[in-house]
Fold:
Amino acid sequence: MTLAPKKLKMRKPHRPDVRGVAGRNNAIAFGKFGLKATTGGWVSAAQIEASRRVITKFLKRGGKIWIRIFPHRPITEKGTQATMGGGKGAPGYYVAVVKPGTMIFEIEGISEADARQAMKLTSYKLPVKTTFIVKD
Structure:
């Protein structure tokens, strides 16, 4: 199951801007523990799914998970044998634009030690640096 939007406003948009800090989606809203990005970048749908599988496997049906990012942005790719010119390539995969401070995952219903361990394992699957957050 790969994450992808059902409908797009633009099929081939320009490259997204990753500069600046997250103005929204930057605090724990649902769970008790969270994984927050400290650097910016693109997180692909495959990386989000791999991270989700790691958390699910670690929790063993205990606790609840919230995925706070979604890959809305298509990234185009040209074929390997394509010559220069010929226009922009076809959409290849989808990414979520993650800015520093963005909350990526949230967990509830498990102990802090287990949540910390699950988020540590999850962070290995992500291309951005992260930190573990506990709700006050």
Notes: The chain has a mean pLDDT of 91.
